[in-house]
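Subject: two folds for Thursday's group meeting

Dear M.,

Sorry for the delay on this. The cluster queue was jammed most of the week, so I only got both jobs back this morning. I'm pasting them in the order they finished. Each block is the input sequence followed by the predicted structure tokens. Could you check whether the formatting survives your parser before we put anything on slides? The first protein is the one we discussed after the seminar.
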Amino acid sequence: MRQSEHNWKTCRNDLLLEVNNHYDLYEKVTDIRGANKLHYRLSFFEDGCVPENRWMIFPDMGHVVAFTYTVVVVLLSQLQCLTFLPLHSRPPSSDKIRVLGIGLMNGDHFVQVKLKACSLMPPIGSNSDGRRPRNGRHFFLAK
């Protein structure tokens, strides 16, 4: 990822393309009308403050970030801590797995968190129906 906070338009565009390209998937892994909501929230590119109804929200956005950038996303907040896996394709070898830590500050601002090597991971984020992804086990069976 390694983008500055000034690249937010590029990031939003990347995430929006992901949702558009895998619309059916996001209908399954998010709540009712989830893909529509994700599309709406990500379709904002104006300068200035982003209106609250266009904020990126978790847990649904965790799936999108993980899938878009092929990273393991670890969400840390006082409300919930979850892990999201990039499950579009076969997991990379264990030495190529990238982990992106995201912390929620003050209930409305996300910051990147540097995680220590071999840190324990929070539970894997489930689909909207409560099921955990089956192919996620490959991330943990690797060396």
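Second protein, same layout:
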Amino acid sequence: MTILKIARLAAFGAALLPAVAQAQGITVTTVEMDTVRQVVAAAGCTVADEDTAMAVEAASGFERTLLAAVVSEMVERGEIVLLDQEGAFRLTSGDCAN
């Protein structure tokens, strides 16, 4: 599952994903969110295609369950804004702040 698919799931299940992450014993840290901020910023702040999504996923170094939890948390906090129903998103914090 690429980060685009994770973001799409986050959009439609934002209320449920934190509970799922908690049930799996995943606690998202500030360091993990900083990592996602850095790799998405390095990719140009917007993830809108599979190539970029795969590059961001690889650069994060996270397992998919952790990446899903981090992206979900950032969607919930309003740091990641979804651009369409396909999962494209833009980071709106850190170096990518509007």
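Two things I noticed about the second structure. The first helix runs from residue 3 to 13. Residues 3-96 form one domain.

Cheers,
T.
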